[in-house]
Design goal:
Structural class: alpha+beta
Number of domains: 2
Number of helices: 6
Radius of gyration: 24 Å
Largest sheet: 6 strands, antiparallel
Order of helices and strands: EEEHEHHEEHEHEH
Helix content: 40-55%
Number of strands: 8
Shape: extended
Strand content: 15-25%
Length: about 210
């Protein structure tokens, strides 16, 4: 009989600490949100300049990065809830009518048109120095050596985070030259990001009115 495993067993994340993702193998990741550039509205010369600058940025890196693009249907429910609150608190009859008509217009527009939002993320890695262990002299002769991640003490964590922050600065500076703004995600923002990735169905659940 097959035994089901918890989702956490398939996720290589050990913990999220001070805005840094620590994987089970001891390596670290930082997540940076990046703004977009309306490339289509640029002139041909501007487009070529952006391409060259981005190519130069990639060639200047001595470490790998991962670029993640998430496309999701816009969740308009918080905006509607805010308008409903305005409607309840409004005293003027004319304004209440206008707010109600606007709410209905927004709802009808969303039903007829799928509005998508795109989010851009850059994942920056750092692997701490590893410690090699072997089973004595016999193990060295037979080559049975094991590589283990460095201990995750506070001193090691702060030292490794400093190295990771240097890479974050390099990426931010390189993307800035392309006209792209960046901001590093904190612990709560990373948790929310992964929650939405692993629980996409929650976006479709009805909001609980308060």
């Amino acid at each position: 009989m097959a035994v089901s495993k918890a989702t956490q067993e398939f996720v290589p994340i050990k913990e999220i600490r001070d805005g840094v993702i620590i994987l089970k193998d001891g390596s670290m990741r930082a997540v940076v949100m990046a703004s977009s550039v309306n490339f289509a509205l640029k002139s041909a010369d501007e487009q070529q300049a952006i391409i060259i600058q981005f190519q130069s940025f990639l060639n200047s890196l001595d470490f790998s990065i991962q670029i993640s693009i998430q496309s999701r249907e816009l969740d308009i429910r918080p905006y509607i809830a805010m308008l409903e609150g305005r409607y309840k608190n409004e005293i003027g009859d004319l304004m209440k009518i206008q707010i109600r008509e606007y709410i209905q217009f927004v709802k009808n527009f969303i039903e007829q048109t799928n509005i998508m939002t795109k989010s851009f993320f850059v994942i920056i890695p750092f692997s701490p120095v590893t410690i090699s262990s072997s089973a004595g002299v016999f193990g060295q002769i037979m080559g049975s050596q094991k590589t283990q991640p460095a201990l995750a003490t506070d001193s090691h964590f702060n030292e490794n985070r400093t190295q990771l922050e240097q890479r974050i600065g390099t990426v931010a500076e390189g993307l800035s030259g392309c006209g792209i703004k960046t901001i590093q995600l904190g612990t709560e923002e990373i948790v929310e990001l992964f929650y939405k990735i692993f629980n996409p169905g929650d976006m479709e659940k009805p909001m609980i009115s308060q």
